Hints:
Layout: H1 4-51, H2 54-57, H3 71-102, H4 105-119, H5 123-132, H6 142-165, H7 170-178, H8 183-212, H9 215-220, H10 239-246, H11 252-288
Helix pairs in contact: 1-11, 3-6, 3-8, 4-6, 5-6, 6-8, 7-8, 8-11, 10-11
Amino acid sequence: xxxxxxxxxxxxxxxxxxxxxxxxxxxxxxxxxxxxxxxxxxxxxxxxxxxxxxxxxxxxxxxxxxxxxxxxxxxxxxxxxxxxxxxxxxxxxxxxxxxxxxxxxxxxxxxxxxxxxxxxxxxxxxxxxxxxxxxxxxxxxxxxxxxxxxxxxxxxxxxxxxxxxxxxxxxxxxxxxxxxxxxxxxxxxxxxxxxxxxxxxxxxxxxxxxxxxxxxxxxxxxxxxxxxxxxxxxxxxxxxxxxxxxxxxxxxxxxxxxxxxxxxxxxxxxxxxxxxxxxxxxxxxxxxxxx
Length: 291
């Protein structure tokens, strides 16, 4: 006969061990992030001490004169990411809705496989496609970079949005249809409101990926310094692209400036992910009726 007290003791020890492993894993992630932030910030202090606030507010980047202004690269990063979202979000939501609400079961399975496969294609492949194919239609510019980034983040947003849309209770959808709603009206009245927070979170995560992409953007954006313009066909540059293109030939001060750009990009992506997490959690609380 099994001793109930001994069995409970083993279960308690197993639970405590699992809890300790989980806490240790989470603490390791936070420790690594903290070490990255501290190390990068320390190496960026050289240029910050030399230029001060003008590093963040100046638009002139001239290594020959010892002048480094991050503003054009911040603009290029945000501008190309916004262009990517404008293109990717409607396509991603359309594909996700088609998979969850319209596609036959067999087609749905193959579409999911194809989208998951696209999500793991190396970014350099998309960048080379942009150079070899897209550049024959568009000049190397903010728009070209935005298109390539859009193609890269469509699978990510689609996969996340699809998983969120599939959480809509079947009873809610059937109730809308029973009241005489068309399929489109049912989607607008039941599926989208239920999934809104998760969809916004998926879009924000796609934004974070677009902001941090390096190789693909570097190959097609044009690598022009000092460009702050709304002209989407103008060449420009972004923080990841200028770091990749300039690191090999940079001197001490320029490397410090490039590291400072990396720290700024790191902070921006963390803020984007925190906003996405907040939106998703708030949506979940509203769905449970606690907000």
